[in-house]
Amino acid sequence: MSSIIQSIKWEEVLERLKTIGGAKITGTLADAVLGYKVIYALFFSLLRNIPGPFLAHLASLHAHLINATGEIGTQHARIS
């Protein structure tokens, strides 16, 4: 395993990452995490068989978005 890691030309890897750009890498990682959460909530979650609206299965995803954007107080004000 260590011979594989040593054989990688790290300078070329870093140059290629620089040409791609940080925004694309960050966006791709965010898309992958979002896709994972959606697939898990719809197909593998223990709550998948509980009846309810289809989008309610993704409710925890909505909570994560609220926490990430810092709109916790505004969401509560809108509800009440």
Would you kindly provide a written description of the structure presented here, covering whatever features stand out?
By secondary structure, this protein is mainly alpha-helical. It has one domain (22-79). The protein has five helices and no strands. The protein is elongated, with a radius of gyration of 20 Å. The termini are far apart.
Largest sheet: none
Intertermini distance: 57 Å
Number of domains: 1
How much of the polypeptide forms β-strand, as a percent range? under 5%
**Helix content range:** over 70%
Ranges where pLDDT stays below 50 over 5 or more residues in a row are: none
Query: Over the alpha carbons, how many angstroms does the gyration radius reach?
Result: 20 Å
Content-based structural category = mainly alpha
* Overall average residue pLDDT: 75
Shape: elongated
Number-wise, the strands total 0
Please count the helical segments: 5
Order of helices and strands: HHHHH
What oligomeric state do the depicted chains represent? single chain
Quick structural overview:
The chain has 80 residues and is mainly α. The protein has helices spanning 2-7, 10-20, 22-44, 59-69, 72-79.
What labels describe this entry?
mainly alpha, single chain, 80 residues
Q: Secondary-structure map with pairings?
A:
Elements: H1 2-7, H2 10-20, H3 22-44, H4 59-69, H5 72-79
